[in-house]
């Protein structure tokens, strides 16, 4: 049965990668930093010890990053986009073909919070383009920023809205 992705979803791939970043931080970077702090303590007077202060500043940065990653992983859920139902309007779990005035086409595949792959046209549901085209249907015209001119827009036609292609679903696993 098809499911609607929750708002706090990301692909299993992106969730796993974020978890791997946290594990690397906890298992490698923090222990290395603790050794650096211990070595710097051995240099003597801590009040004028640049290495010690630098290592402590790095520790604060690493701990802050660890807390952020832990919070993000707690607040986000992995989702199998193969189970998603694609509607006829652009949004999460849809593939959208945009037709530009110059005749070029661009396909964007909208996934979850942390998802991005330029080669496959995967963008996050929070990316500016995804937000701009949310809810549009095939045949609609949307004004999008012109990549060549800062303050210009282009009238882009939504050629189609459909399900995610197999290669995107495979990437997301």
Which features does this protein show?
elongated; two-stranded parallel ribbon; 7 strands; Helix Hairpins; 2 domains; 173 residues; single chain; Chitinase A, domain 3; 4 helices; alpha/beta
Task: Describe the protein.
The protein has 173 residues and is α/β, with parallel strands linked by helices. Helices cover 40% and strands 21% of the residues. The strands form 2 sheets. It has a 5-stranded mixed sheet. Helix 1 runs antiparallel to helix 2.
How big is the Rg? Answer: 22 Å
The poorly predicted ranges are none
**Can you tell me the CATH class of the largest domain?**
Alpha Beta
What is the CATH architecture assignment of the largest domain? Roll
Q: What class would the helix/strand composition place it in?
A: alpha/beta
Distance from first to last alpha carbon: 18 Å
Strand content: 15-25%
Q: Helices and strands in order, then pairings?
A:
Elements: E1 9-11, H1 12-41, H2 50-75, E2 77-79, E3 94-99, E4 105-111, E5 122-124, H3 128-133, E6 141-145, E7 153-162, H4 166-172
Parallel strand pairs: 1-2, 4-5
Antiparallel strand pairs: 3-4, 3-7, 6-7
Helix pairs in contact: 1-2
Question: Nutshell version of this structure?
Answer:
The protein has helices at 12-41, 50-75, 128-133, 166-172, and strands spanning 9-11, 77-79, 94-99, 105-111, 122-124, 141-145, 153-162.
């Amino acid at each position: 049965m098809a499911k609607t992705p929750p708002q706090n979803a990301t692909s299993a791939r992106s969730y796993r990668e974020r978890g791997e970043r946290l594990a690397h931080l906890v298992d490698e970077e923090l222990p290395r930093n603790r050794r650096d702090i211990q070595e710097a303590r051995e240099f003597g007077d801590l009040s004028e010890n640049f290495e010690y202060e630098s290592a402590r500043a790095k520790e604060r940065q690493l701990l802050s990053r660890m807390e952020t990653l832990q919070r993000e992983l707690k607040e986000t859920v992995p989702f199998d986009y193969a189970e998603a139902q694609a509607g006829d309007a652009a949004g999460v779990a849809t593939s959208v073909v945009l037709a530009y005035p110059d005749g070029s086409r661009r396909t964007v595949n909208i996934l979850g919070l942390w998802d991005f792959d330029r080669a496959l046209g995967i963008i996050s549901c929070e990316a500016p383009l995804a937000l701009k085209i949310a809810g549009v249907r095939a045949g609609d015209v949307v004004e999008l920023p012109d990549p060549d001119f800062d303050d210009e827009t282009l009238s882009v036609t939504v050629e189609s809205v459909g399900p995610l292609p197999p290669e995107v679903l495979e990437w997301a696993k």
